[in-house]
Write a structure and sequence with these properties.
By secondary structure, the protein is of the alpha/beta class. The protein has ten helices and six strands, in the order E-H-H-H-H-H-E-H-E-H-E-H-E-H-E-H. Helices cover 43% and strands 14% of the residues. A six-stranded parallel sheet has the order 3-2-1-4-5-6. The longest helix has 17 residues.
């Protein structure tokens, strides 16, 4: 870690084991508005584009500013409000935050709703570790352009969107596998040797402690 001077972290699948929970919530919500092949197509798109704000993904399939899009968004938000606070932190993540934040600025970037992310961080007593916590409906790509990133910067994510976002600020990218829903990650990163593949945040412990 001492090789880096700032860190950016994704939330779902990096700090919290919440990808499956959110997918289940979206399946429940979307089942009220779609069925069969259309439902499965939407859910596949939803997972494939983890890291994008939910508003963008819903509007892709159900239209911008339509009654169905708004109703689906409201239902999904309601289900998250009921269940998200039960999400557990990923292996080693709290120790990583404690140690990394003592050495450098740390930011959180999420495709999830910013209000949900902040509430989840407060519940788990980790808000103080961050210089800033950012989420939807603004995209990660928009947020990262405004961060006062200090190079060399480490970005840890678990989606294609995270990788693309890291490229915008020339951050060193680490892809975290243990909780990801990106089934094609091995093939996608096969020709990208600059990307570090890690199981979870305990990968960095040796460097942090050195």
């Amino acid at each position: 870690m001492k090789a880096f001077k700032s860190t950016i972290l994704d939330v779902d699948g990096v700090l919290f084991d919440s990808n499956t929970l959110k997918h289940d919530n979206m399946r429940k919500a979307a089942s009220e508005f779609a069925e069969g092949e259309r439902l499965e197509e939407f859910l596949s798109y939803f997972i494939l584009h983890n890291g994008l704000p939910r508003e963008i993904k819903i509007e892709k399939y159900f239209g911008k500013d339509t009654m169905i899009s708004q109703a689906l968004l409201n239902r999904y938000n309601q289900l998250n409000q009921q269940t998200l606070m039960a999400a557990e932190m990923t292996q080693g993540s709290k120790d990583f935050l404690r140690k990394a934040s003592s050495q450098m600025p740390v930011w959180a970037l999420s495709g999830g709703a910013e209000r949900e992310v902040k509430a989840l961080f407060e519940k788990n007593n980790i808000t103080s570790f961050f210089e800033g916590i950012y989420g939807g409906p603004v995209s990660k790509k928009e947020h990262i352009k405004k961060l006062p990133v200090v190079h060399p910067c480490l970005y840890v994510g678990d989606s294609k969107i995270d990788y693309e976002t890291a490229l915008l600020v020339d951050a060193g990218f680490a892809f975290m596998t243990r909780y990801t829903q990106f089934d094609g990650w091995a093939v996608f990163f096969e020709d990208k040797p600059e990307v570090t593949i890690i199981p979870d945040l305990t990968y960095f412990f040796q460097d942090i402690n050195s």
